[in-house]
Amino acid sequence: MRRKSHVMERIDMPQGKPRETTVVYGEHAAQTIEALTDFSGHEIEFDEVWYLEKYPDVAQAVQNGDLPSGRVHYLQYGRDEERLGFAFDPDWYAATYPLAAAEAGDADPSVLRQHYLNAGRFRGYLAHPNSNRPKNPAGIASAYGGLWIDQANVRDLIAGRLEIGAISAEDAALLTAFVNDGYVKLPEPLPASLLDRAEEVLEAAYSGGLREDLLFECHAVSPGYCLWSNRVRDEAAKVLDLHWWSADIRHVIFSDSIAHFLHLIFDRPALASQTLGFYRGSGQPYHQDSAYVPYSLPLQFAATWIALEDVMTGAGELQYWAGSHKALPEYIYPGDYRSAFESQRHLGDQPLVSAAVQTHEKQIVELARGRELKREAFLAKRGEVLFWHADLAHGGAPISGSRTRKSIVTHYCPKEVAPLYFETVGGASVHQHNRCYYSSGIYRGGPSD
After folding, report:
1. What is the 3-state secondary structure (H, E, C) of the chain?
2. pLDDT tens digits, residue range 185-203?
């Protein structure tokens, strides 16, 4: 994820609330050592004097007046160029922390330094004997919280759970992939018997034969929700909350392998708060669900994409930027909120929030490309399931021809977390299905069995 830049290059910093913060450690260090944040929002030390001594090109640019400080260079360029912002003493580090030396397995300074960056600092290890320790080195980076898998020391937590027998080796591998990439495909497809029944329900919904009051979102028909018409089958559309009316859909979204992974990442029972049933692709711009799917704990949720048929190129296949849940800066909506919904609820300024949404979508692509993230597509086989993180940047590829993309998307949160439609629509209820729960922000009354 290197960004190639010259020391004289000028760039525009991301809009929204910046993640970089500064804390000066004591008067003796007022002019040299600060606590900044890395791209993922975790605190990291920066030493101005050491940085300028280490990188003469930066020192020369500062001396020439091309840059105000080494700090500015580090924030705008140095992190992208993988330059270190502080002194690291490999001999002291290896001698002081036995586990670090054993895990690194090499006396090479670069290996030990990488161990510090990837693991040691999140355990509270120091880079050198005079370093300053962060207040909570293992904590979640975002001020808006997250799940246990968002803690800085999550890799140690996974390894520890595996070592004490709380999870299997396969669980550990899936969790590690989810933490690193922001998504994971479950290893086995869902049973054909479950898929057959769910596909029948989706076909009935898009043929107008399921329920007269079934609601769709199809902007080619209406700017808001609409009832079934022939056009929803031919246009980009979503049938809303099929799980409320169909036990067959609930059996799919709470199938054993899905429920198991939900329980792994939530550490408690899961609630399905929303399903979107697709007959064709959506062509939706790149976005992060944290901006559009609001909960009382804004980052405690995840989503699945279940393929009800093989997905071919040109069917509006799901695309995503690997690692974007950590690599992209946290976008803050007007009023200091993570979601457009919360911003609109408090400010009531639709044009302002709409403009922020457009800026957010534009920045996702610009920053993902600038940080050289890999864009991937989920060309799923029938029954395959993709999980993704609340902050993974994803969208739908352009739709061409008449290809279908029959699938179900579900958003889940821990049982006690409230979807914010509980606060706005009134009369919402929660029901149990096996070891999980579900609700709807669209329909009232009892669900169908």
Report:
1. CCCCCCCCCCCCCCCCCCCCCCEECCHHHCCCEEEEECCCCCEEEEEHHHHHHHCHHHHHHHHCCCCCCHHHHHHHHHCCCCCCCCCCCHHHHHHHCHHHHHHHCCCCHHHHHHHHHHCHHHHCCCCCCCCCCCCCCCCECCCCCCCHHHECCHHHHHHHHHHCCCCCHHHHHHHHHHHHHCEEECCCCCCHHHHHHHHHHHHHHHCCCCCCCCEEECCCCCCCEEECCCHHHHCCCEEECHHHHCHHHHHHHCCHHHHHHHHHHHCCCEEEEEEEEECCCCCCCCEEHHHCCCECCCCCCEEEEEECCCCCCCECCEEEECCHHHHCCCCCECCCECCHHHHHHHHCCHHHHHHHHHHHHHHHHHHHHHCCCCEEEECCCCCCEEEEECCCEEEECCECCCCCCCEEEEEEEECCCCECHHHHCCCCCCEEECCEEECCCCCCCCCCC
2. 999 999 999 999 999 999 9
Total domain count for the chain? 1
Q: Is the pLDDT confidence value at 427 over 60?
A: yes
Whether residue 282 lies inside any domain: the answer is yes
Where in the sequence is the domain holding 371, given as residue range(s)?
174-438
Residue 335 lies in a domain: yes
pLDDT at 449 over 90: no
Nearest one of 340, 362, 363 to 353, comparing CA atoms = 340
Residue 298 lies in a domain: yes
pTM of the shown model: 0.88
Residue 412 within a domain: yes
Q: What is the CATH number of the domain that holds 360?
A: 2.60.120.620
| Burial grade of 348 (CB within 10 A; 0-12, 13-18, 19 or more) | exposed
